[in-house]
DNA sequence: AAAATTGTTCGCGTTTCGCGTACATCCATT
DNA sequence: AATGGATGTACGCGAAACGCGAACAATTTT
C-alpha cells in the first residue's frame, strides 16, 4: 500500500529517488526499497515522508483514500502557509476574489 | 512518541494490555513493548491501532501534535475547493503568484 | 558518443521484531 | 491474612527485516 502511494506521489512531483533520499538522509537504495515494497520505512520515515509530500500518514498507510480532506477555502478554518509565511484571513479573501474573477474570465472565452 | 500516545489512550479507555493484544492478534509482551518504547509496531499494526482507538495514524505517530495541520500551499498535494469547485493545480500556481505579487506590493508601502 | 543522472536489484552485516517465559504487583474473594 | 487470577514489566532467543554500498540497466543531458 505505502509503496504504491509513495511511487504515485513522487511521480506526480517529478522528484528523483536521490532527491527524496537526500531529504530524509537515507540511501537511495533504501528509499527505492520503500517504493518497490522490498522494505518498509520506519515510523519516523513515514512521518517525514508525509511532511515532504504534503500529505498525511493516514494516506501513506492507506488508512484513508484521501490525500487530504477536501477543504472549502471560503470556510477556511485551517492553517496555511506560502513561502513559509502564514496566509492571513485577509489574504484568503483576496485569493478567493482573484480566483472567482479569473474563473469568470475563463468562462467567457 | 507513539509509545506515549498508546499508553495515554489505553489508560483513558481503561483497557488491559491483554485486551489490545487479543484484538491485534499479537502477544501481550509484544504490545507491552510498544508502550514501553522497547519495540516499534509495524506499519500495519499502527493502522490497526488507530482504528481500534478511534483515532488517526497521524495522531499516534505524532505527526499532528499541533491542533491544526499547517499546509504549505507551494507544496500542496491536497484537495481544496472554492464555491464547491475543485481548485486545480494550475489555479494554485496562479494563486501563489498572485499572493507573492500582492505581498511584494504591501512591503513597499 | 560520452558522461551524467536515474532507477533496480542483491548480498552482507546489523538491528530489531515477536514470542515465550519468568516474575512482581494489584485486587477480589474467602 | 491467604489464595488465586488477572495485570504489568523485563529479558533471552531465533527469525525477520532493516539500511547500506555496489553493480548494473535505462534514461537523459551534454
TrEMBL record, chains A, B:
Classification via SMART domains: HTH_XRE
SUPFAM superfamilies membership: lambda repressor-like DNA-binding domains
Domain HTH cro/C1-type: 6-60
Record-linked Pfam families: HTH_3
This protein's UniProt keywords: DNA-binding
Keyword check for Transmembrane helix: no
Any GO MF annotation of the entry: DNA binding
InterPro entries: Cro/C1-type_HTH, Lambda_DNA-bd_dom_sf
Protein known as: HTH-type transcriptional regulator immR
Lineage: Bacteria, Bacillati, Bacillota, Bacilli, Bacillales
Amino acid at each position: 500500500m505505502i509503496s504504491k502511494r509513495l511511487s504515485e506521489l513522487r511521480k506526480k512531483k517529478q522528484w528523483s529517488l536521490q532527491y527524496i533520499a537526500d531529504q530524509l538522509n537515507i540511501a537511495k537504495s533504501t528509499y527505492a526499497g520503500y517504493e518497490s515494497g522490498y522494505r518498509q520505512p520506519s515510523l519516523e520515515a513515514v512521518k517525514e515522508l508525509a511532511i515532504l509530500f504534503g500529505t498525511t500518514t493516514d494516506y501513506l498507510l492507506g488508512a484513508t483514500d484521501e490525500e487530504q480532506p477536501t477543504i472549502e477555502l471560503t470556510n477556511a478554518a485551517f492553517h496555511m502557509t506560502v513561502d513559509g509565511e502564514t496566509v492571513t484571513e485577509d489574504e484568503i479573501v483576496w485569493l478567493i476574489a482573484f480566483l472567482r474573477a479569473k474563473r469568470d474570465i475563463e468562462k467567457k472565452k
